[in-house]
Design a protein that fits this description.
Porin, 52% strand, mainly beta, 4 helices, 17-stranded antiparallel beta sheet, single chain
Length: 349
Amino acid sequence: MSGFIWTNNVAGGKSVSPAEGPSRWGLKGNEDLGGGTKAVFTLESGFAMSSGQSFQGGRLFGRQAFVGLSNDALGTFTLGRQYDFANDWLAQSSAVYRWNGYFAHPGDNDNFNWQFRVNNAVKYQSPVVGGLQIGAMYSFGGVAGSFGNESAMSFGAKYENGPAKIQAAYFHMNHPALAASEGNWNTMLFPQISAASPNEANALNPQSMDIYGIGGTYQIGKTTLGLLWSHSDYDKLGDQGDGLADADARFDNIEANIAYNLTPQVQFVGAYAYTIGKVHPTDFAPQYHQVDVGVNYFVSHRTILYLAGIYQRAAGDATYANIECAGSSCAASSSRNQVSALAGIFHMF
């Protein structure tokens, strides 16, 4: 996936830079062990198309790396570096998951844009029964003498019945800045927190993180409607000398989206997201309105040309807009408004 993005205001000036989508390559396979059981594995690497540089902190297989067993009647059990269920299932109703990484909620506070994965994870996904599937995951922290430090847990459920799909999930991680170090953690807690506590925003070392929510989609002919609510908590951000060691940041994201397939080759998409933030004990309350629009042209089953636009307006106590990683430096606008437009190509092989 590759392209270019134009932004009207990045730290006060216009910007044109490569649009680094989630380009990836990998290996996946299975071996039939008989009796409905298979050995399965996935190895997946993320990289920048413009430079060839590896994402995910330079890991060889930074997106996913796991092995396990799958049984038609009992479900799938895997071990390794994996997605939690908020990221893997709940995000399926979101615009960022379905269409474009730049459609992420402000700061990607709910991690729907895959800012990090979970290491040392044991994950179970049940078989689908009557349209319902459930799952659970636990990650061992790996810190000597402290079983719970840097550990994580996640639960999820999804249901599908004809045109209707519903997903719900919960994810908890202890010391996420350490446990999920990706080389890009600094993009998670977006810089609006700095208006309440400049030093605290740079700490980026919360004691714990929780993400949960519910969402769903419904298809009516050529139109698919989506609705989603997600909530994220970042507790005890860490003291950097300003006396706010116990500062907490909380965000609620409410999103409605739509896709319309004009023809088998042409798809129009759009979304509106409202984000409400609250930082305790300062009572700093940023808010964000974001509108996403796009058109996808399916040249073939494997190649897509895309155009997209994003408008974000900061409100409440938020003093400037900051579309997720818009511009070469991912810097915020110098005002409450920011607009980005991008175009590119997506090819699967």
